Amino acid sequence: MTERVFNFAAGPSMLPEEVLQRAGSEIMNYQGTGMSVMEMSHRSPMFQKIFDHTKQQFIELMHVPDTHEVLFMQGGGSTQFSCVPLNFISASGKADYAVTGNFSGIAAKEAKKYGSIHLSYDGTQEGFTRIPSQKELQLDPEASYFHYCANNTIYGTEWQYVPDTGNVPLVCDMSSDITSRTVDISRYALIYAGAQKNMAPAGVTVVIIRKDMAGHPLPITPLMMNYETMIKKDSMYNTPPCWQIYMLGLTMDWLAEQGGVEGMEKKKHAKAQLLYDALENSTLFRLHADRDSRSDMNVTFRTGSDELDQKFVAEAAAQGLVSLKGHRLTGGMRASIYNAMPMEGAEKLREFILQFDKENR
Ligand SMILES: *Cc1c(COP(=O)(O)O)cnc(C)c1O
C-alpha cells in the first residue's frame, strides 16, 4: 500500500484519518450487529440511534437553536439551488442574489425559473477576486430572501461578515466552509451544505432551516424537495443516505475531540496564513483573491506561466502533495485546506512553495 498523501482536493476531499480508521474497523460488523451500516434498514432501531447521534452532535457543535431544524437531504448543494426558490419565493415572487463566484451564479440562474431574481451584487466583470462590502449590496426590501455563498470554493474568496438584510430572510450556501468557523445560526432563515468538502463523503446535504420558513412551497415543488416533508418526517420520508449520515456522525465525534467548531476556527486561520505568507513573500506567485476577501479554506494562486503552474503541480504531487491543480475556470493552483487537512500538510506545502520559488525564479 502506498502511504497516504496530503490531498488538497476541493471536494470530495480529505477526511480525518481517525474517521476512516473507525469506519474501516466497523465495516463488516457494526457494534455486534453482524452487519455493516451500509446493509442496515433505515427503520431499524440501530440506524435510528446512529441518525439521532449524528443530528444531535451536529446541533451541539454548530449551536443550532430550537427555532431551527436540521435536515439531511440528497442531491448535493446543487439541488438546494432549486429547493430554495421552490420553497421560499412565494412570499413576494422576488429574491435577491449576491453572485460572488461560480456556484452562487448557478444558484441565481436556477432561481430565475421560479421567480424574479435581482442580483444584489455581481462580481463577474471583476473575475470574482473579492467579496462586496455591505454598502455595495443592492438590497430589495421586498425580496422573499437574500441568497449568498459564504465561501467561493473555486475562486478562493470568503465572506468575512454576515450581510445585514434587515427583515429579508438570509439564505446561505456554506458547502465549503461549514464547521470551520462559528456561525450565529439565529441570523439565518436557511443554511445548506453538501457534505463532501468538510464533513463526510458525497451524498448527504445538511440543511439548517428556521422552522417558520417552511410551509409555503410553490405548488409545483417536488415532494422530495419540499422542506415541510423533510421536517415532518425527520429527513426519513424515504431511504436517507444512511452511510453518509453515519460517516458525518463519525466526523462530528472527531470534531468534538478537536475542540469543536471553535477549535477548528482557531486552527484554520493559522493553517491558511502559513500558505498566504509564503505566497505573498515569493517572487513567483500571485494570489487570485484580494487580501480582505481571502478564503481560509481554498487558497488560489498562480505563477503567470501555464508551464510553470503545471511543473508546480507535478513536482508537488511527486512529494505527496496532491490535487493542487486549480479549477478550469481560474487555472493556476488551488490548495484546499479543510478541517481534515493537518497543520503538517500545510507546513509541507509551505516548504514546497518556498523551495519552488527559489528554484524557478
Ligand atoms: C461544491 C459546491 C457546490 C456543489 O455541490 P454539489 O454537492 O456537487 O452539488 C455548491 N456550492 C459550493 C459553495 C460548493 O463548494
Key traits:
alpha/beta, globular, 34% helix, 361 residues, Aspartate Aminotransferase, domain 1, binds pyridoxal-5'-phosphate
What hetero molecules are in the model?
pyridoxal-5'-phosphate
In the CATH hierarchy, the architecture of the largest domain is: 3-Layer(aba) Sandwich
Any idea what the radius of gyration is?
21 Å
Could you state the order of secondary-structure elements as H and E? EHHEHEHEEEEEEEHHHEEHEEH
- Would you identify the regions where 5 or more consecutive residues have pLDDT less than 50? none
Biggest beta sheet attributes: 7 strands, mixed
CATH topology-level fold name of the largest domain = Aspartate Aminotransferase, domain 2
Could you estimate the helical fraction of the residues in percent?
25-40%
Total E-strand runs:
14
The CATH superfamily of the largest domain is: Type I PLP-dependent aspartate aminotransferase-like (Major domain)
CATH C-level class of the largest domain is Alpha Beta
Structural class: alpha/beta
> Any idea what the shape is?
globular
* Proportion of residues in β-strands: 15-25%
- Average pLDDT rating: 97
The total tally of domains equals 2
Biggest sheet strand order reads 2-10-9-8-5-3-4
- Taking the alpha carbons of the first and last residues, their distance comes to 36 Å
Give the helix tally.
9
